[in-house]
């Protein structure tokens, strides 16, 4: 997530103060990503340095309803508008796999003498399923908030993909006969939990 570009997007609506930007950032992202006000002002300073935002002249600030007037109000520059447009249309770089800690743990566990790889996988799977249950409850508690629902759906899809990878890894390790693997990887599994079914069919 780019806080830098989120600030540009919020400022595209008009001049705003730092505290208001923080409040709107959290509201627009469904309160999923809390933002420290210090991070907001640091980001604004860097954006101003790069010529992407500029401060509103004191006489033009008026009453934004955000700060007490002691802080600066910012507006988007033409360069900032161009930068925002480029960012929105540029796909993220997914050409190289990330150094995922969970993947590394499973790979390392296969090399550690006396380690039950299946037990390691099951421990992480239980944790991920619990997280999915928590996110599902959050979505159900505030189903009317579109931003929240979209953010939660994205997190549920992400977690479900990790659980799928753990399932596939466990089966592949078992077929390879690795120590601590299951003897029968193709045994029937329990039905898919409701929260995982819901993750595939967002509301």
Which descriptor suits the 3D outline? Answer: elongated
Q: β content, as a range?
A: under 5%
Total count of domains: 2
Question: How would you write the strand order of the largest sheet?
Answer: 1-3-2
Task: Tell me the distance between the termini.
Answer: 23 Å
Q: Helical segment tally?
A: 8
* Biggest β-sheet description: 3 strands, antiparallel
- Give me the count of strands: 3
Low-confidence stretches: 64-70, 181-193, 199-203
Radius of gyration: 23 Å
- Helix-and-strand structural type: mainly alpha
- What is the H/E string? HEHHEEHHHHH
Task: Name the helicity range.
Answer: 55-70%
Average predicted confidence as pLDDT: 80
Give an overview of the whole structure.
With 203 residues, the chain is mainly α. It folds into two domains: 3-89, Arc Repressor Mutant, subunit A; 101-200. It has helices at residues 3-11, 18-28, 37-49, 78-89, 101-109, 117-141, 146-175, 194-200; strands at residues 16-17, 53-55, 73-76. The protein has a three-stranded antiparallel beta sheet. The radius of gyration is 23 Å and the shape is elongated.
């Amino acid at each position: 997530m780019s806080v830098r570009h989120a600030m540009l997007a919020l400022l595209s609506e008009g001049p705003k103060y730092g505290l208001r930007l923080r409040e709107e950032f959290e509201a627009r992202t469904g309160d999923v990503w809390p933002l420290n006000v210090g991070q907001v002002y640091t980001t604004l300073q860097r954006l101003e340095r790069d010529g992407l935002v500029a401060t509103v002249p004191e006489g033009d600030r008026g009453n934004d309803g955000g700060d007490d007037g002691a802080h600066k109000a910012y507006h988007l520059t033409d360069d900032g508008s161009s930068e925002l447009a480029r960012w929105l249309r540029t796909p993220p770089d997914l050409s190289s796999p990330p150094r995922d800690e969970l993947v590394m743990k499973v790979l390392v566990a296969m090399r550690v003498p006396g380690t039950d790889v299946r037990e390691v996988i099951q421990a992480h799977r239980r944790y991920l399923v619990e997280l999915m249950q928590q996110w599902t409850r959050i979505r159900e508690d505030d189903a009317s908030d579109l931003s929240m629902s979209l953010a939660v759906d994205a997190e549920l899809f992400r977690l479900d993909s990790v659980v799928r990878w753990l399932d596939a890894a466990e089966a592949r390790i078992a077929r390879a006969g690795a120590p601590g693997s299951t003897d029968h990887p193709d045994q029937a599994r329990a039905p898919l939990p409701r929260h995982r079914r819901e993750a595939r069919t967002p509301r």
